[in-house]
Structure formats: C-alpha cells, structure tokens
Amino acid sequence: MQERFLSARVRRGEPPLLPDGRRVIRLFPEWAPGWPLWESFTAAYRLTGDDLGLGPELSRDLRAWNDRWAARKVDDPEPEGWRAEGRRLHARLRDELAGAAEIRPEFDAEG
Questions:
Q1: β-strand pairing of 101-105 with 23-27
Q2: How many domains does the structure of the chain reveal?
Q3: DSSP state of 85
C-alpha cells in the first residue's frame, strides 16, 4: 500500500514521502560494488551514504557488506554471516535515520 501511496504522490508532483514526512529507504544488495541503498520514485534511485547524511563508519560498513555480496558468483552460497551483518546494518540505519526515513530490509525475508 505504501508503494501505491508514494507513486500517487509523485504523479501529483509531490515528493515521495510517507504521511509522517519520512522517506522510504530500501536495503538490499546489488551485483556490483557500491551501495545497497535504494529509494523508489526518485531520480537518484540508488543512494550513497552522502545522499543520506550517513556517518563514515556506517557508510564504509554498508559498502563492504554489499561488496561481499557482489564478489560472489550468482550460484555461490551466501557469504557466511552476511545476513546477520545485514540485520545489524539495518538496525544501525534505523537508528541513524530515525525520524527521517523508514528502512526496509528487503534482503531478509525474516526482516
């Protein structure tokens, strides 16, 4: 339902914000080195830590987490501890962006 709401806002020329003013940031890996942060309905779909004002330590850790994923072959098993690290990163992102964004852990069905 949130996706439909955000899409409708953008069609009306409004920014893609939830009713409480927060952004929706999606966390999932990419098969290329870099950032695992995404914001639908925006021109800058794939985001960087600078785009979100993240601290250098969290930014570094997010890139390293994504790079571990991207370094494997498609059929390789998930890197050991990768999903648990993603959950920790999700919690850190939620804390750092509290009040500014909802963080969706789309890498994790249990999330």
A1: parallel
A2: 1
A3: H
Q: Has residue 111 been placed in a domain?
A: no
Q: Are 103 and 93 in contact (CB under 8 A)?
A: yes
48 is a domain residue: yes
pLDDT in tens, 46-95: 999 999 999 999 999 999 999 999 999 999 999 999 999 999 999 999 99
**The model's pTM:** 0.89
3-class DSSP assignment, residue 107: coil
In a domain, 110, yes or no: no
DSSP state of 34: S
Range of the domain at 7: 2-105
pLDDT in the model for residue 55:
97
For Cα atoms 69, 90, 54, give the angle at the middle one, nearest 5 degrees. 95
CA–CA separation, 84 and 24 (whole Å): 22
